[in-house]
Amino acid sequence: MTELGIAMIGHAFMGAAHSQAWRVAPRFFDLPLRPVMSVLAGRDAGRAAAAADRLGWAEAVTDWRSVLERDDVHVVDICTPGDTHAEIAIAALDAGKHVLCEKPMANTVAEAVAMAEAAERAAARGVRAMVGFSYRRVPALGLARDLVARGRLGRIHHVRAQYLQDWIVDPAAPLSWRLDKAKAGSGALGDIGAHIVDATQFILGDTIREVVGTMETFVTERPLATEHSGLSGTASDETGPVTVDDAALFLARFAGGALGSFEATRFANGRKNALRIEVNGSAGSLAFDFEDMNVLQFFDGTEDSAVAGFRRIVVTEPEHPYVGSWWPAGHGLGYEHAFTHQVVDFVRAVAEGTDPAPTFADGLRVQRVLAAVEDSAASGTWHQV
Amino acid sequence: MTELGIAMIGHAFMGAAHSQAWRVAPRFFDLPLRPVMSVLAGRDAGRAAAAADRLGWAEAVTDWRSVLERDDVHVVDICTPGDTHAEIAIAALDAGKHVLCEKPMANTVAEAVAMAEAAERAAARGVRAMVGFSYRRVPALGLARDLVARGRLGRIHHVRAQYLQDWIVDPAAPLSWRLDKAKAGSGALGDIGAHIVDATQFILGDTIREVVGTMETFVTERPLATEHSGLSGTASDETGPVTVDDAALFLARFAGGALGSFEATRFANGRKNALRIEVNGSAGSLAFDFEDMNVLQFFDGTEDSAVAGFRRIVVTEPEHPYVGSWWPAGHGLGYEHAFTHQVVDFVRAVAEGTDPAPTFADGLRVQRVLAAVEDSAASGTWHQV
Amino acid sequence: MTELGIAMIGHAFMGAAHSQAWRVAPRFFDLPLRPVMSVLAGRDAGRAAAAADRLGWAEAVTDWRSVLERDDVHVVDICTPGDTHAEIAIAALDAGKHVLCEKPMANTVAEAVAMAEAAERAAARGVRAMVGFSYRRVPALGLARDLVARGRLGRIHHVRAQYLQDWIVDPAAPLSWRLDKAKAGSGALGDIGAHIVDATQFILGDTIREVVGTMETFVTERPLATEHSGLSGTASDETGPVTVDDAALFLARFAGGALGSFEATRFANGRKNALRIEVNGSAGSLAFDFEDMNVLQFFDGTEDSAVAGFRRIVVTEPEHPYVGSWWPAGHGLGYEHAFTHQVVDFVRAVAEGTDPAPTFADGLRVQRVLAAVEDSAASGTWHQV
Amino acid sequence: MTELGIAMIGHAFMGAAHSQAWRVAPRFFDLPLRPVMSVLAGRDAGRAAAAADRLGWAEAVTDWRSVLERDDVHVVDICTPGDTHAEIAIAALDAGKHVLCEKPMANTVAEAVAMAEAAERAAARGVRAMVGFSYRRVPALGLARDLVARGRLGRIHHVRAQYLQDWIVDPAAPLSWRLDKAKAGSGALGDIGAHIVDATQFILGDTIREVVGTMETFVTERPLATEHSGLSGTASDETGPVTVDDAALFLARFAGGALGSFEATRFANGRKNALRIEVNGSAGSLAFDFEDMNVLQFFDGTEDSAVAGFRRIVVTEPEHPYVGSWWPAGHGLGYEHAFTHQVVDFVRAVAEGTDPAPTFADGLRVQRVLAAVEDSAASGTWHQV
Ligand SMILES: NC(=O)C1=CN([C@@H]2O[C@H](COP(=O)(O)OP(=O)(O)OC[C@H]3O[C@@H](n4cnc5c(N)ncnc54)[C@H](O)[C@@H]3O)[C@@H](O)[C@H]2O)C=CC1
Ligand SMILES: NC(=O)C1=CN([C@@H]2O[C@H](COP(=O)(O)OP(=O)(O)OC[C@H]3O[C@@H](n4cnc5c(N)ncnc54)[C@H](O)[C@@H]3O)[C@@H](O)[C@H]2O)C=CC1
Ligand SMILES: NC(=O)C1=CN([C@@H]2O[C@H](COP(=O)(O)OP(=O)(O)OC[C@H]3O[C@@H](n4cnc5c(N)ncnc54)[C@H](O)[C@@H]3O)[C@@H](O)[C@H]2O)C=CC1
Ligand SMILES: NC(=O)C1=CN([C@@H]2O[C@H](COP(=O)(O)OP(=O)(O)OC[C@H]3O[C@@H](n4cnc5c(N)ncnc54)[C@H](O)[C@@H]3O)[C@@H](O)[C@H]2O)C=CC1
After folding, report:
1. DSSP per-residue letters across D17-77
2. Domain regions of chain A by residue span
3. Is A151's Cβ below 8 Å from some Cβ in C?
């Protein structure tokens, strides 16, 4: 089988998740190409080498640009903070490498536009680009989209989406890069709000047209971090300013007429990773909470009302998206599986010569929504996306 | 409208629940007879008078026998401990009074046989008798029975029934009459186990044929109670022996082939009144928990498995049993409503000249199951009912 | 005991709920005055008489003004649509009658101001006024307020409140008075949105300072209703325009700094009466859903994280608000009990000579929030309350 | 790092789960030895080779005995049906190979005794043996055991354990080896009942002393399977007898005094893999359902009853068993992770020279319980374990 050489840039939280995906995907899914975990790029030689060893990459380098020149690298998998995405992705695409880029696609609309253009140029040459909105690949959300697409919800009236976390409710939690606008672009908005923007647009097959929102930083000064990765870190004695939002809320109108209510926060005490989506339509409703990720609630409004009710569909049947390749019914999946599914779809699209979704155009569309929310929060009025 | 004079014996926990039922039923339901809360009987004149005033009875007496002689009394409503049921019920029936008798119907099978015979004699004269298995009148359980009767579950394979409470998990909880075999007949078995025996037989439209079980008294000595009513009381300095079971568990086989697992306990820490029933059939399943009493879970096994799941039916639709007389959908009922429904069905049966269910024959059938469990617990083998 | 004569105006949905409350309150609670259900006022003589008989009122009249002149009437209980509240309440207060007025207090801020002024005048003469925001008296929400007041949640960051119903998702549902701006003032906003505005302000002990919102009418033309009461009605062949909102959504900022997200809709398919409130604070969180009304979820963020989690508090313990007067733990209450508690507090306040909450000033505060939402929906910008 | 060569026997359902565990464990956990997926043994050369390729094993053989002679094999991992366990395990241990053997350990007590003896002999030579009761390694159940061990539940009164599946509720489901007594030893009892026996003994740190039970085969004749693996298969036109139980129920008494109620069934329509355990003690309770596997419900009975309630602990905190090596809080694990944890503990024990639990002695103890249930089902009386 033809090999598909992968270079991964960044090797911490997402680095571990993506490595697991590359490693595991071919063991459970029939892939048309054999992914090879060729090289990992980090900034520090020692840490990169240790990571490559731990995560199972053949080699480690400290200059990500070097991987673009290698013939054994066909894919660049970007797992670094948002400020680096545009530069790496555009360079990789221009070098003829397929790109899987973590979300949010960029830190600004300008960057995202440039990336989408690069992706379009690349596509003309058969080079593919995809954004890592991994929650699309949670089977329950795939099923949600199917139900909407098949008309089981009828005309959509309401979308209610929240992404609730609590990892910095403690004012002593340190200033990781996620709290630094220069690195992260925004706070809760881009980090987790981006996911519910993408996921709801995906489920509805519709786009957000206008928004009105507000953003808030509850704790404006925090200890600097001596070391950090993913969501954890160690606090130092010095402090610095938090330059991003702790929470972002907005109302939205979809092009198709649905009303949306969105909230992303890192201050929802007791909610660890509660990505929740509820959709109400003229014929039915559905509800999802990532804290119970193998379940989709579905209300069929066409049933006799004496026996109608939200059904707790355990999304582990062979006919559910992706599930047939894993375990028997009732043997649930975990967080990382969505990343494996992402890699499966990516590899298949590359092999088939199609554009894997979410495309960079989709990523740009999300970016425009985030920007409209920020603009709205500043102006206090509705903004078109 | 013709009046139906009621005499109630006993006036504490059930006294309050039954009073509420008599008071409220005609306000929400069309009754063919107008219940009149004529007289309440207690043992202590002062307390009985106070109770009559509080609960809304026209009069109070201390000798329950006196009410049997009154022409303005047509119904005797027995709300006293189990040791008194047989004597009062038989006397009342023989005096031509309709009887609503609290559960468990009696403390022994012998008493229950005598009561069932008295009921049969009475029925021949148009006098009615009913046992107060109130949970039958929770709308969700009425719906459960309907679903089984309409074949929505197919052939029944499994019944799983638990009645879990924790009100005496504290060893300092006093020795109320419920812990005294002479008064109560048995402990958890007759007090709450009787409910799940009746409710499952009711839902299935089937009877338990044989059982094997065990009983346990975890705390064998407790402070005497200086005063008590319902589930609460005050402890004294002296102690006495607990003469009933704290918990009773048994396996059962129904006549129709279903396998049952039953458990009644007062030691399930944190479970306040968790009457839970799950039924699995060849075509579907249902599940109920009284801690969420307005909900019935229903699994329709004939659905496409991609969208099948336990449905959380909120049993508050107008077409659900009894519900149409109350509030709009979603405005749930409480504990006491089942007693109101009980009174409604009782009054209607009296007016129509039919036997209100559960009849004393049904009560006897439950009693035989309880006795078989006790026998089995003693012998260690299966016992026929 | 001194009697407290009640006159009730309107006798359909709320009429039944209030009647039940007046009837039942003295049976379970020690009241300093004995409520007497003296007279009911309706517009149609026949229907009023039938209602009085069914609901248990001594007398029926067709002119509500007549009750203001009666010496045996001390309380006027207003259970009519919003367009009548101001006129009746002001007349009653000026006539020296205590007033219990259903929510929303009025249809406009101007009316509400006049009512609050009348209440202030009346209070000076010992005459009391209260608004029927009944959900305040659901024990779980009383406990929620207690927890916030006792600092168990710390500084409040987030409030998430939804009131979701689906009773007009069917476009064939008829045009009841609730869909007529002249009668109802607004649609989902005033009918159910008012409840979550009041309830969140109550729980937080804080007020909403500014809002930005949007409103939507999904179905703009409906069959006229030939007859209707509460939430149900019969459709005729003619149609007419819907003049109110089907859904209203808004973001809010509380004076104390909390961010709020509110949504009221009658188009949430499958949600029957889902009044949901979630509050996140620096020390903990709580969550409530009226579809499981006897439960409050509480997260104590000060606990060791290995054993922390949202606790499902079954709010049926004797020490919970109002509960001790009812049944043993685990024997839940229903929809109507909040109305009974409302009457209990009202009667006690009248007897004690204090102002029962929510006062007309509270009602006005809610009205101002509703008006700010409407203004914001029209202008597309934030509005101060 | 020293290598630990693995040979896996059997390569279907458990083969895939164990392969994933060997592959993934060293990527997330610090292991003292480096597992090498050396060789896989199957019966058919073609299928074994395909499996080795798919699952990532260096080599495939058709004679499992051959692997015992290889120096590069240090561990034999048995993933075949129960009838083969004793022979393979004893041979492997006697050949000086560490053994990880799937559950139930054997098909009979006699086999299990021989295996336990072999394990004891082997231990004397530093060779280790472990049984694959994988659910012990679900973090929530590890936490459950911790809570019991730390006394947070006090004296244990009740254990309620169910393992509910529905994969053969359809009478047309084919006769896989799991329905053949010669291969499987028993049906639901050994396949899934064994798990709840082990898990409850593990959580309590106690053993079952006596049982009374019953077993049932609802569908006694089924189509033969043309092909099958794990829980799925293809039906042929011929039929054959089902020689095992579809369901097994029993009551139990633990040595420490707790009462247990157990049920294992493949006929619980709608329940896919509902391994449920509830434990009630004098100081608290806990509840678990594998359909929500990242959650443990815990009731702390020592709390003020006004705020006590079952806590939904999301068992994804760094301090929870195994979790710290995976993802941030709230990013749940799936079915396969328990197998990874099993491998981690196994490798560590091998390196440290300690006996990994559950030992073969533990496996034998479970086997004795299963045998006692079968004996009891036959005799209708209680049996000592
Ligand atoms: N799909 C999803 O659900 C998630 C997506 N993400 C996204 O993944 C990306 C990475 O986030 P995490 O892995 O959580 O962060 P992290 O802090 O755990 O790891 C970032 C990695 O990037 C490396 N890095 C940082 N700056 C670099 C540079 N200039 N050049 C090369 N390497 C650099 C760091 O050394 C580290 O290895 C972000 O865009 C984030 O939004 C993060 C978490 C979940
Ligand atoms: N349907 C249901 O769900 C329930 C049924 N019950 C049943 O109701 C009956 C009464 O139980 P509770 O009301 O809970 O008990 P309780 O202790 O609250 O009240 C018993 C009442 O009977 C009176 N009483 C006792 N012995 C008497 C005698 N010899 N003569 C006259 N009056 C006597 C007492 O003074 C007291 O008023 C029992 O059979 C019990 O099993 C109890 C609770 C719930
Ligand atoms: N607290 C709560 O949760 C609830 C409050 N409400 C409020 O209660 C009030 C009444 O609502 P419902 O009872 O649901 O309405 P409904 O339509 O069921 O009853 C209205 C009653 O008012 C009478 N009525 C109407 N116009 C009248 C007039 N001009 N003069 C005298 N009587 C008149 C009608 O004949 C009818 O008896 C409204 O303000 C509503 O917002 C309603 C439902 C729940
Ligand atoms: N820990 C757990 O939760 C689970 C444990 N199990 C246990 O794992 C074992 C295997 O079950 P599954 O993998 O589900 O079965 P399966 O039917 O999926 O696979 C059995 C494998 O064993 C092979 N095999 C059968 N007989 C053989 C023989 N005589 N020699 C060599 N290979 C042979 C088959 O070719 C197949 O590869 C059983 O003991 C079962 O009880 C199964 C499922 C879950």
Report:
1. HHHHHHHHHHHHS--SSEEEEEEEE-SSHHHHHHHHHHHT-SEEES-HHHHTT-TT--EEE
2. 3-134, 135-355+365-379
3. no
